[in-house]
Amino acid sequence: MRATNRLSAKGAAALGRGKYADGAGLWLVKEEAIRGKWVLRATVYGRRREMGLGPFPAVSLAEARRKADDARAKVRAGLDPIKEREREKREAARNLHLLKDVAADCYEARKAELKGDGKAGRWFSPLELHVLPKLGKMPVSDIDQTDIRDCLKPIWHTKAATAEKAIGRLALCMKHAAALGFQVDLQATEKARALLGKSRHKVENIPALPWQDVPGFYASLTDGTVTHLALRLLILTGVRSAPLRFLRESQISGDVWTIPAEAMKGRRDETTEFRVPLVPEALAVIQAAMAHSRDGFLFPSVRKGVISDATMSRLMERRGMQARPHGFRSSLRDWLAEATEAPHDVAETMLGHVVGGSVERAYRRTDFLDQRRALLERWAGHVTGQSGKW
């Protein structure tokens, strides 16, 4: 009988349960008639080792013999083939990181810089939606400007803001990959910009009602519904839609509304809350809204949760207005600039904007609450039909 190559492909498939030698230490171990595994028995450093070479029949007889030959060559070279295989896997993992792995690691490293530790997922979503489906399984070292161009071309002119976020996040991932020691082209994203060309998309500001016309609109919000009350408070406070729609009774103490830092756009430091002074007109709106409260929310929707921004927008749309709820922040800011002498820092703080650099903010301990209260009282006087200039 031959010492090696004892088995044949057809013969191996016909064998029942048992252990069958092909020769030179290669064995077919059949656990049942239709499946089994290949095993190589070899002596390494004076010790008998068994090395799995894969399942049968997924790994053919010819492939099992090739794997066995490679392993025997390592033994002859004084190496342990099992440890060498593990080392090669680790080396391959280090040298062939996929973009999706690098992106996930980059996101984890940056979470501390993001609002709410990135729990909302907004930082990662441009990558997840527009980059990783096409490039995620590519080794990061292989990605070049043409790959990036082809990936973002479908949205470059139609979703310009999203495309900018996606290419910016990708640039950070490439820098992260370089920091991990991978050979990447750090200029690939800029080269891709050159290939994509200047975006044709024109950014349009959200339409705003001129501040002179706000009193007329405010006066029309008289039916006491959740939508009317929400719009009134939105106008009176100058806050964004989201914190207002999710306003809870517990956030109000006396004549101050404290918005949690995680609900404030652009505020990454969760210890920095934002206080909104509530003037008498705003307190009256809140008192009326409490009659509609549900689960602690002052502005609940008809079915569940809270009122949506779209609900307020649709009211204005049905009236044939171009302006939208978010635009009332611009109305307030224009009024501050044109009808008052409010200092720039106070006016910007009224809108919840971060003013000054990190060092300046560290030394400035005030949030101008009293100055903002006085200005909001004047603003309330204006929107309720008074001059607002006293």
UniProtKB/TrEMBL annotation:
Keywords (A to Z) from UniProt: DNA integration, DNA recombination, DNA-binding
Instruction: Answer yes or no on keyword DNA-binding.
Output: yes
Q: Name one GO biological process term.
A: DNA recombination
Q: Name one GO molecular function term.
A: DNA binding
Upper taxonomic classification of the species? Answer: Bacteria, Pseudomonadati, Pseudomonadota, Alphaproteobacteria, Rhodobacterales
Q: State the source organism's domain of life.
A: Bacteria
Q: Which InterPro entries match?
A: DNA_brk_join_enz, Integrase-like_cat_sf, Integrase_catalytic, Integrase_DNA-bd_sf, Integrase_DNA_bind_dom, Integrase_recombinase_N, Phage_int_M, Phage_Integrase
Annotated Tyr recombinase domain residues: 204-376
- Give the organism the record lists: Paracoccus laeviglucosivorans
KW Glycoprotein (keyword) present: no
Listed Gene3D superfamilies:
1.10.150.130, Integrase, DNA-binding domain, Intergrase catalytic core
Family indicated by similarity = Belongs to the 'phage' integrase family.
Query: What is the protein named?
Result: Integrase
